[in-house]
């Protein structure tokens, strides 16, 4: 497929997700942590950029966990990913859920940015940047896709000794929260790095949240501690007239 040859994509990463595609909607399966954090991130996004009636793009949507929940909030959602199997699962699930305002496409963010610049009120890109060779290019594409005054949300994992211990050793090897090999340390992104990519793409950083996991209660909660899992909200400035 041409898009994959030229896009900013690591085929091994896509293969990991494709191999598990049938598990996207298994609440107790490999993607359980995404199901657990979904209400938290959904409400956070909705509180900053109320989703009802918006045109929303979800980049790296996987099986559609976030995309579908945003459509339920009344948004018109387009989900994009390059993993064919995941998109098929997302499409089937959307059909079952009978959500007309939810569509999926297999296209790279950079290619969609050429086709639909400025056409989305909100762009979300969650748990995806740490799986691509050139995350800055995805941030740029998201900045192009959102309209002036619109919001872009990213989530990823910080890179430091604590996040290595908790997000890789802890989550993959001790607690079996996610499959081994899901995350590669060198690809994790510090908030300062993600912030730099945003500013370079013309986005203004507005706020951030940590997603903290408590291994005793086995629950996530939002916090101000961005040392492991975190989300950031950025805004594209309204066009200035000169
Ligand atoms: N955003 C979803 C899924 C996160 S898993 C959620 O948070 O629920 C990471 C996703 O990124 C997978 O679906 C994988 O197929 C996708 N992905 C990885 N590299 C990609 C790329 N270069 N372009 C688009 N999607 C990619």
Descriptive overview:
- The structure is a single chain.
- With 242 residues, this protein is α/β, with parallel strands linked by helices.
- The protein is built from nine helices and eight strands.
- It has an eight-stranded mixed sheet.
- Helix 3 crosses helix 4 (65-72).
- It binds S-adenosyl-L-homocysteine.
Any idea what the radius of gyration is? 17 Å
Poorly predicted residue ranges: none
CATH superfamily: Vaccinia Virus protein VP39
Strand order of the largest sheet: 3-2-1-4-5-8-6-7
What does the overall shape look like? globular
**Structural class of the secondary structure composition?**
alpha/beta
Number of helices in the DSSP assignment: 9
Fraction of residues in H or I helices: 25-40%
Described by strand count, sense and barrel closure, the largest sheet is: 8 strands, mixed
The topology string of helices and strands comes to: HHHEHEHEHEHEHHEEE
CATH topology: Rossmann fold
Annotation, overall tally of beta strands: 8
Q: Judging by the overall fold, what is the CATH architecture?
A: 3-Layer(aba) Sandwich
Enumerate the distinct ligands. S-adenosyl-L-homocysteine
Portion of residues in beta strands equals: 15-25%
| Overall mean pLDDT | 94
Estimate nothing, just give the exact number of structural domains: 1
- The span between the termini is 44 Å
CATH class: Alpha Beta
């Amino acid at each position: 497929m041409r898009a994959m040859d030229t896009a900013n994509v690591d085929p091994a990463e896509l293969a990991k997700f494709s191999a598990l595609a049938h598990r996207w909607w298994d609440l107790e399966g490999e993607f359980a942590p995404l199901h657990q954090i979904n209400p938290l991130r959904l409400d956070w996004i909705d509180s900053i950029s109320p989703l009802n009636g918006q045109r929303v793009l979800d980049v790296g949507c996987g099986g559609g966990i976030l995309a579908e929940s945003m459509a339920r909030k009344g948004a018109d959602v387009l989900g994009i990913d390059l993993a064919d199997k995941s998109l098929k699962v997302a499409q089937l699930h959307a059909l079952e859920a009978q959500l007309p305002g939810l569509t999926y496409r297999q296209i790279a963010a950079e290619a969609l940015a050429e086709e639909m610049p400025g056409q989305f009120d909100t762009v979300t890109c969650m748990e995806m940047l740490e799986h691509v060779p050139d995350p800055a290019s995805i941030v740029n594409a998201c900045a192009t896709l959102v309209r002036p005054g619109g919001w872009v949300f990213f989530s990823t994992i910080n890179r430091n000794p604590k996040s290595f211990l908790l997000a890789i050793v802890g989550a993959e090897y001790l607690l079996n929260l996610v499959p081994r090999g899901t995350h590669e340390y060198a690809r994790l992104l510090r908030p300062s790095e993600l912030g730099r990519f945003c500013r370079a793409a013309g986005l203004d950083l507005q706020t951030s949240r940590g997603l903290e996991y408590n291994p005793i209660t086995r629950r996530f909660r939002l916090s101000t501690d961005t040392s492991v899992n975190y989300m950031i909200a950025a805004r594209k400035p309204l066009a200035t007239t000169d």
